[in-house]
Every structure is written in C-alpha cells, then in structure tokens.
Amino acid sequence: MERFRYILFLLLAVAVAIPVVVRSRPGRDHTAPAAFSVLPAPSGYVQVDGDVRHPGVYPLTAKTMTSGVMEMAEPLRPVSTLMPAAAEKAAPVSGDAFTVAVQADGTTVVTKGGMPASSRLVLGIPLDINTVSEAELDKIPGIGPGLAQRIVLYRHKNGGRMAVHELQAVEGVGEKRYADLKKYFQPADIK
What is the 3-state secondary structure (H, E, C) of 23-68? Predict the structure, then answer.
C-alpha cells in the first residue's frame, strides 16, 4: 500500500513538472496571456458620439488623450486632421462629451462639451453648481422642483455664480440637507 502511494505521488509530481518544463523552454514565440490582467483604475469617464462606430461612455486613465478616446470610439472614416488644432494632444477631463463629425475630405471636427447631468450623476462625476440647469438640479436626490428653482434664483441674484457652501443660504437647505447634497458638486468653492 505504501509503495502504491509512492508511485501515485511520483506520477502526480511528473504530471505537474512536465508543463512547467515545456513552458520554460527557450525559443517560445509568444508568452501565454495572464489569467488576470491588471488594468489601471479609471480616473473618470468621457462620452463620445457622432460619426463613430461605437458611441458611448469611455473610461479615462491618467495617460488618455483625445486621440486615444477617438481610437476607442472608431471614427467612421480615416481621420486626416483633427480639429481644432492640437486636439489630439489635449487631455480630456472626466465629464467631457465629444461629438465627432467626419467631413467628406476626411477632416474630423471634434466638438467638446459636457455630459448631461443625469449621466454624470450615474457615473459619480461631480456637477458644476454654476452651470447645472434647474431641470438638472431637479434630478439630484434630495432636490425637488421647488428647491431647484430657489437654487437657480439664488445663483442668478448673486451674479450667476455661487460656491457649493452657499447652498446653505438657500431656503430649505439646512445642515443635514447640505451634508447630503454637497457630494454631488465639484468641491472647489468658486465665487
């Protein structure tokens, strides 16, 4: 019985060793792909639509440039020129939205704007309190149509700009509600 276990152990050891030896032989043309690839965590998201094969939302990494985003979305025609000039070297920012228009001569015009507030909220991208509309404010949990109207009115009375902490000065926003709402906005207090 002991001899049978020894032979079984020896056969298992050989079965494990053979693939290791074969894989470590020099002269292999390619290496096997890793079982688990480590991808960099996205630093944000951008949206691409227009004349592309794959419109949608794409993750950003620290090294993503506008040209990289365009490559992921695949323009419908080969790109000869990207406009405006040097757009391919610009680093997109989380929440940017690009519309791609490929003209007949191959020139690609890329227009940069911002994602809708609803998309930004779903992706966890903070909103700019100075540019968000009343309808977009209404979509934020904890803000209804009445409070959205009061926020826009407060912003308008103060020259069209306000800092996030100024939400506390709007009727209906106390400390608790402010604590719940401030996470939806960019943290910079701009006035």
Answer: HCCCCCCCCCCCCCCCCCCCCEEEEEEECECCCEEEEECCCCCHHH
pLDDT (average), residues 54-72? 77
For 44, other C-beta atoms within 10 Å of its C-beta total 17
- What's the pTM? 0.63
Q: Break the chain into its structural domains and give their ranges.
A: 44-114, 126-184
pLDDT in tens, 108-129: 777 788 888 888 888 888 989 9
HSE of 72 in the Cβ direction (CA atoms, 13 Å)? 19
CATH number of the domain located at residue range(s) 126-184 in this protein: 1.10.150.280
pLDDT at res. 164:
93
Phi and psi at 114, nearest 5°, equal: -120, 150
| pLDDT at 190 exceeding the cut of 50 | no
Cα–Cα distance measured from residue 58 to residue 98, given in angstroms and rounded to the nearest whole number: 11
Give the rounded distance of the alpha carbon of 164 from its chain centre: 23
Cβ atoms of residues 112 and 83 within 8 Å: no
What local confidence, expressed as pLDDT, does residue 175 receive?
Answer: 92
Give buried/exposed letters for 16-34 (b at 16+ CB in 10 A, else e): eeeeeeeeeeeeeeeeeee
